[in-house]
Amino acid sequence: MTRTHPRSWLFIPADSEKKLMKAPETGAHAIIVDLEDSVAFAAKAGARRTARDWLEAHKRQITTRKQARWVRINAVETGLWRDDLAAIMAGAPDGIMLPKAEGPEQIRLVAAEIYEHEQRNGLPNGHVRILPLVSETARAALTITSYVEASMPRLAGLTWGAEDLSAAIGASRKRDAAGQWTDTFRFIRAQTLLAAHARDVWAIDTLHADFRDEEGCRRAAEAARGDGFTGMLAIHPVQVPIINAAFAPTEAELAEAEAIVAAFAANPGAGTLQLDGRMIDQPHLKQARALLGIEAAPVRPL
Ligand code: COA
Ligand code: MG
């Protein structure tokens, strides 16, 4: 089955040439070169140059779509983001991740600036997409549904993060004693998922911060896929194969999807059938066809 959208999204700090060199061998479907929280203020200018050089060096991958190249710029409120874009847009990134996004107006502000740089750099209008982090302040987290209706043609997906918000609200824990997200984060995670699907864009689950905990990352990635996310963020190369594996359909899922499609093909005109004693109807058929790549998955392809 061909992959139509990135599953694993690996952050790499833009001030680390060494880590950037490793990007291709990590197997990440998308790299997010980070100019924001993983780069100290004094290192921003150098990081912008390193990011641009890396984007340039990997430009030819645009045609093969092997590894998408994204950049996380600094938040609108910092005032750094315009210089970030000015430095990196010559490298023709596939998209821009916008942290601490506070709603559609900020997306449109950044989109307008991106448009200017596309013109200047000879890129097709709309080439560079936008992926906002929608949950990083309390106010932002309460307005996630505002992304559903607003006009934002560059919007590629929605993703969320727990770190900044927990600092913003003074939460000393993000998970409960059983290891589940606390209410605040479950609320945000569900809204991100639903708003993304309501808009027909990617829904990308947040990262598993403890990168030494491979078992926890596997559980998180399986939960992400099981809940309907289309991909997941990563911070360490060890997490990438775990995420890729969790999002790949299993043999059993493929076999079941084939059986569902075959059952409806054998009963043309039937709206509902049974398969091994279970009812199957049109939503099952739709999901089976999507899994087998017979029809587009319910999100926009890359
Ligand atoms: N991308 C590419 N390579 C990475 C990497 C990443 N995100 N994180 C680690 N590596 C490399 C390291 O350079 C190291 O390479 P080496 O074996 O040749 O020395 C190897 O993987 C093992 O790394 P490890 O020693 O386990 O971790 P570390 O102490 O070097 O790095 C972090 C730990 C958290 C600093 C690092 O994983 C990182 O920078 N992650 C991304 C942080 C980020 O972008 N945050 C913003 C989003 S929240
Ligand atoms: Mg942050």
TrEMBL record:
UniProt keywords, alphabetically: Lyase, Magnesium, Metal-binding
Q: What are the residue boundaries of the HpcH/HpaI aldolase/citrate lyase domain, all occurrences included?
A: 7-237
Q: Does the keyword Magnesium apply?
A: yes
Q: Which InterPro entries match?
A: Aldolase/citrate-lyase_domain, Citrate_lyase_beta/mcl1/mcl2, Pyrv/PenolPyrv_kinase-like_dom, Pyrv_kinase-like_dom_sf
Q: Which GO terms describe its molecular function?
A: lyase activity
TM helices/strands, residue ranges: none
Give the required cofactors: Mg(2+)
The highest taxon in the source lineage is Bacteria
Checking Gene3D superfamilies in the record gives: Phosphoenolpyruvate-binding domains
Q: Does the entry feature the keyword Magnesium, yes or no?
A: yes
Which PANTHER family does this entry report, sorted A to Z?
HPCH_HPAI ALDOLASE_CITRATE LYASE DOMAIN-CONTAINING PROTEIN, LYASE BETA SUBUNIT, PUTATIVE (AFU_ORTHOLOGUE AFUA_4G13030)-RELATED
Record-stated family: Belongs to the HpcH/HpaI aldolase family.
Q: What is this protein called?
A: CoA ester lyase
Its source organism is Novosphingobium cyanobacteriorum
